[in-house]
Every structure is written in structure tokens, then in C-alpha cells.
Amino acid sequence: MEMITSKDNARIKNAKKLYKKKNRVDTYLVEGVHLYEEACQSDAEIKQVFVTEKFGHLPDVTLVSDEVMKFLSDAETPQGIITEVSLPSDQLVPSLFTKLLILENVQDPGNVGTMIRTADAAGFSGVVLTKGSADVYSPKVLRTMQGSQFHLPVVQDVEALTCYQQLADADVAVIATTLSDESVDYKTIKTPEKFALIMGNEGSGITTETANTADILAHISMPGQAESLNVAVAAGILMFSLTD
């Protein structure tokens, strides 16, 4: 098997560009053995796999030198395998969802990845990110998700109010998190048959328009002295409570 040893190789340079959202047309990169295995086990279309000699035994791979792998990798310590995967087709069909997580302008990649992974663990049907949220296919979000994008639909760059209208038309109840006087403790909520849970921006929460649109406004009562919870922690509490 021939090895790519130059960082100037066209395939390497083109693949490297996929770390930036503006360069992604129909594929993205995942790094590491676990995400390679997740991609293989899912319905995802694998375009190409770059490996060092350590993984040269795998089928249909492109062998690269350690130096090229280090150049191509976004990790401090490359595992030696990077997979180019086709992006899913972005479409939202609210009537198909029974449990939907919506992230409204959530900007921290770690929070976004954690919440998508938690939605996967809690048995949610899909995740929607409105415009202004972190890039789902950025390296940090992908590392935090740990392959959950292969388990449930994840749609990004959605217009928030258009999405909420689609949910209303499909009789999907919208539950939004807020600390307003109109909100109720999440423990008192009788979970609707079909619902969407909205988590807002880390600093400013949900928008006024979203609050006015929601069917239920909910909060987590805190007996301690902390002013607020991390949005990913709050999302985890709510998701498992609503699916209990």
C-alpha cells in the first residue's frame, strides 16, 4: 500500500479544510477509532479513511505518515485514524418526532456536544440547533458527542420561530426553560405525548419570542444558593425527568 508522506498532497489539504464550517459542502471529519467504528455501524456514508501504519490492516484505507497524520489531526495526540463522512441531509419533519431537544443559540461546543449525547442517552428522537448555536461538526462538539450524531437526527442552522410554528402545526407541545414568574417547577409537568424541550443561551436564556410561543414554561427549583445551573446539566435533569 502506497503511503502519503507530503502535507501538500491535494487530498490531505482538502480534508484539512473540512474542520471549518464554511468549507463543508457534503462531508465532515471524525477522528479516532471509536468514531470510525460508530460510522461503520451506522448508515453513514464513509468517503475515505486516513490511517497510520497502526491501522493499515483496515479495509479501504489511505495510509499516511505520522507527520501527515499530525498535520491532518485536530487532536493534541492523534490516534492515527481520521474518517471523512457524508453529512446527513438537513430536514426537519416535526410530526415524526415524539421527543425533540431544541438548542436555541447555545454557543459553547462542550455544552452542545454534551446535550446531544444526553439526548441520545435519554431516548430523544432528534436534536435541532437554531441559528447562532455552535457548529455540530466542529472537532470539539464531535469529540463530546462521541458518535451520538450517528444515533439520532441532528439538524443545525434552523430558523427558531419557523421551527416552532412547524411544531405547533404538528401538535408537538413546546416546553421552554426559563426562570420567569410564569414558569412551573419541572416536577409538576405531565409530559405530553409529543413534545419539544427548548434550552436557551448560556447567558441570556431563551428569547422573549420563544417564551411567548411556548406551551409550557419550566424551571428547576434550586434549594441551594447557586444562581443557576450549567445549561447542559439542566438539560440532562429535564430530559431524563420528561422521559421517566
Kindly describe this structure.
Keywords: Methyltransferase, Transferase. It comes from Pseudolactococcus plantarum. Belongs to the class IV-like SAM-binding methyltransferase superfamily. RNA methyltransferase TrmH family. InterPro entries: Alpha/beta_knot_MTases, MRM3-like_sub_bind, Ribosomal_eL30-like_sf, rRNA_Methyltransferase, SpoU_MeTrfase, SpoU_subst-bd, tRNA_m1G_MTases_N. The protein is α/β, with parallel strands linked by helices and 244 residues long. It folds into 2 domains: 3-86, 60s Ribosomal Protein L30, Chain: A; 94-242, Alpha/beta knot (3-Layer(aba) Sandwich). The chain is built from 8 helices and 12 strands. It has helices at residues 10-16, 33-41, 66-72, 109-121, 139-145, 160-169, 208-213, 231-242, and strands at 3-4, 27-31, 46-51, 62-64, 81-86, 99-103, 126-130, 154-158, 173-177, 184-185, 195-199, 216-219. The strands form 2 sheets. It has a 7-stranded parallel sheet, with helices on both faces. Strands 1-4-3-5-2 form a 5-stranded mixed sheet. Strand 7, helix 5 (139-145) and strand 8 (154-158) form a beta-alpha-beta unit. The longest helix is centred in the middle third of the chain and has 13 residues, at 109-121. It is elongated. The termini are far apart. The model has no long low-confidence stretch (mean pLDDT 94).
| Mean pLDDT across all amino acids | 94
In DSSP terms, counting alpha (H) and pi (I) runs of 4 or more, how many helices? 8
User: What name is given to the CATH topology of the largest domain?
Assistant: Alpha/beta knot
User: How far apart, in Å, are the first and last alpha carbons?
Assistant: 52 Å
CATH architectural name of the largest domain: 3-Layer(aba) Sandwich
Strand content: 15-25%
Q: What sequence of helices (H) and strands (E) makes up the elements?
A: EHEHEEHEEHEHEHEEEHEH
Number of strands: 12
The level 1 CATH classification of the largest domain is Alpha Beta
Class of secondary structure makeup: alpha/beta
- Please bin the fraction of helical residues: 25-40%
* Low-pLDDT stretches: none
CA radius of gyration: 20 Å
The domain tally reads 2
Q: Can you list the strand order of the major beta sheet?
A: 8-7-6-11-9-12-10
Can you tell me the overall shape?
elongated
Main sheet summary: 7 strands, parallel
CATH superfamily of the largest domain, please? SPOUT methyltransferase, trefoil knot domain
